[in-house]
Design a protein that fits this description.
single chain, 0% strand, mainly alpha, 54 residues
Length: 54
């Protein structure tokens, strides 16, 4: 028995995963949108605190 390359293992694992994942994709999208929203909100609020030396 010869060893299976890592790429073949990943492909095999991905094909074995169920096609119906339920709310997993939705939760992933919600988390990404929340993180991006928090970053943009922090940038918007903190940009007013920039010092203008000179």
């Amino acid at each position: 028995m010869e060893p299976i390359p890592a790429a073949a293992r990943l492909t095999e694992a991905a094909s074995a995963a169920p096609h119906q994942q339920g709310a997993g994709d939705l939760l992933r999208i919600v988390l990404v949108v929340m993180i991006v929203g928090c970053v943009l909100t922090a940038w918007f609020l903190l940009r007013g605190y920039k010092r203008k030396d000179g």
